[in-house]
Amino acid sequence: MPPAPALPLVFPRLEARDLQGRAVELPEGIEGERNVVIVAFRRDQQSLVDSWLPWLEARAATDPGLRFYELPVIGTLWSPARGMIDGGMAAAIREPVVLQRTLTIYTDVRRVTVGLGIDATDTVSLFVVGADGAVHWRGCGGFDRDTATEMAQVLATMVAGIAVEALHPVQQFDFEFERRFRPMLAVVGVFSSTAHVTIGDSELVAHFGPWSCETTLDNIIDVQTTGPYQARRAIGPRGSMTDRGLTFGSTTAGGVSLRFREPVHGLDPFGAIAHPGLTVTVADREGFAAAVRTAAGLLD
Length: 300
Description:
Number of strands: 16
Shape: globular
């Protein structure tokens, strides 16, 4: 069987807000032909972000198609304090152009780290993103000449219209939430922002609030759309008593069931129970099933 075609790493879909209060949908809201996005996770990383600004400002002055953005990523727990946190940042900055390019994101941090292949949050991560949301390069840390030279080469290649080799394939899918079950799921920490499945270049990772399940793509041997379900068997994180299958369920309308070659863990925090399959109630069931089959090489 021929290998599945590579898919470009696309910046994950996220809801952001600039420090002037304007809602921004990502990646559509990054407006340059070429964009440098700096992702930070902690307040003390601002100095690392700032170390890049003189170089980026100088480059943008000679490249009208270049934009750059600062993306502080803040956990969902802090969402109720967004007005105070964003207001504090805005009061310290005040410059309109900086307020507009600083986009705060309050979400499950894993949406960003898994979606962009970020291994650690103890430093900033940098990305070169095209107008279509495709990620052409990534790096990390504060400014240094070698990293800047590498980024500049990628930007110059994009200006010249030369195809840039795609990074590893990543796709992210959200869960579908049935309204009547939202309060029950919220009690256990499952919200739309904390429930998502990411397909990477070699693995699949499903997050469902505090629960997660991951496996390598070559461990997936079958993919089927299933449903509808009975609520008592489908809603919440569940392990089947009959076949030990794992379900991350947020709707009775339907889902996608994956079968594994080797059982995986995901429900039991001690790792004593392994599951031969996983069912996830994602919103785009057909699209997710097709993406998994392609990524796992299960096409006929």
